[in-house]
Amino acid sequence: MRFRRAAGWLGGLVRDLGPAGGGRVWAGGWWPRVVMGVGVGVVAVVIGVVTAGRVAEASPGSAVLVPVALGLAQGLPLALAPMRPMAAFWVSLPVGVLVSETVRAGGPGPVWAEPSLLAHLGVLAVVGLSVRSRVLPVLWLVTLLAGAVLVQRMPGMNASPDLVEMTTLSAVVLVAAGALRERREALRRLADQERVSHAERLHRSVLEERARIARELHDVVAHHMSLIAIQAEAAPYRVADPPPELVRGFATIRAGAVEAMTELRRVLGLLRDPADTPGAGPAEAPQPSLADLAGLVASVRSAGVPAELAVTGYARPLDPGVELSGYRIVQEALSNTVRHAPDASVRVEVGYGSGALTLCVVNSAPSTVGPATNGTGHGLVGMRERVAMLGGELSVGPLVDGGFGVTAVLPTPRGWG
């Protein structure tokens, strides 16, 4: 097992050291890419020009093509590094050795020629930002080995200070680049974790709100099933001498309704909040309806918020599910107004149409902003879930005058209103 792990680790290291190793260091977005590309290109051109001048100065009798070729070769790794970091590293080493040998041929000089050292340090910085941490020591050792080879070709010269300088600078660059890369990776993982946590919180909020809506609608469904059971039980007595088949049919309907109510109670037990206790009062109170909106607006007004209620159309009883959902939507919109715009005035409009109920809650622009929240509330989530359940439409957002508006259109099923 240990041998396999060691073999796998070595195989991964070899792949990371290959020319295709390392990822691109281009930043996201076209503008950062343009800035980085222009910056790297300018640095590569400057290094190439300086290298060509240094080679021409060290070899005055050489052809013009030699300094130009070495200058282009010295600038190539820098231009290549952002896209192919490891390939740039393996090109930078032999080119730096060749340029250093050429420059030193014209007279005494450092182990690494100045432009070659700067170019290689730049390549190391880019490579350190793109490869894994386990590769950095190998890059440093290979760089040190190339410097040792150059030292061996300098007989009679004390090259130790230059070798120490090159070793120290390369180590500092690699450590700094590796630290920056680790920090960048840590920030990326943190951002990913925050996105996952936000998605989980949102999903949990939706599930909790759906469970709460289901608990509220339990009373509505149970009421309908009770009516079915009662009417199925009483129907045979309304007919003189009903046929046995009719009596059995109504008995089957009643039994199915009673069984459905039993299953509803079981489902309610699964959906009930553990914090709820039987006989807690509000849990057993009748579910509110649109007729209770006047009292709701009055309670908001008594809390110091100027509020008014306007009803248009023919106010009539609607489907209990629509009544309950409409009341909860207005209640949540008013709660948000009190919480986030406590000194704003609010207007509630209820419009009874021929096929839909329109609810509109609009508040004026507040002079002060309420306390900030962490975004984990269920208000907007609950509104969307209720409207989606009824097949309606919801519009929520700021207004031109600085206020905020919530508009919900709920279809009214046939047979109601």
End-to-end Cα distance? 75 Å
- Describe the largest sheet: 5 strands, mixed
Name the shape in a single word.
Answer: elongated
Q: What string, H for helix and E for strand, traces the elements in order?
A: HHHHHHHHHEHEEHEE
- Poorly predicted runs of 5 or more residues: 277-283, 372-377
Strand order of the largest sheet: 1-2-3-5-4
Average pLDDT reading? 79
- Please compute the radius of gyration using only Cα atoms: 39 Å
Helix content: 55-70%
Question: Any key phrases for this structure?
Answer:
elongated, 11 helices
Question: Can you walk me through this structure?
Answer:
This protein has eleven helices and five strands. The two termini are 75 Å apart. Residues 277-283 and 372-377 have low confidence and may be disordered. The chain has helices spanning 2-17, 30-58, 65-80, 85-104, 114-128, 136-152, 160-234, 244-271, 293-302, 320-340, 379-390, and strands at 307-313, 346-352, 356-363, 393-398, 404-411. Helix 4 runs parallel beside helix 6, helix 7 packs antiparallel against helix 8 and helix 9 runs parallel beside helix 10. The chain has 417 residues and is α+β, with helices and mostly antiparallel strands.
Structural topology:
Layout: H1 2-17, H2 30-58, H3 65-80, H4 85-104, H5 114-128, H6 136-152, H7 160-234, H8 244-271, H9 293-302, E1 307-313, H10 320-340, E2 346-352, E3 356-363, H11 379-390, E4 393-398, E5 404-411
Parallel strand pairs: 1-2
Antiparallel strand pairs: 2-3, 3-5, 4-5
Helix pairs in contact: 2-3, 2-4, 2-5, 3-4, 3-5, 4-5, 4-6, 5-7, 6-7, 7-8, 7-11, 9-10, 10-11
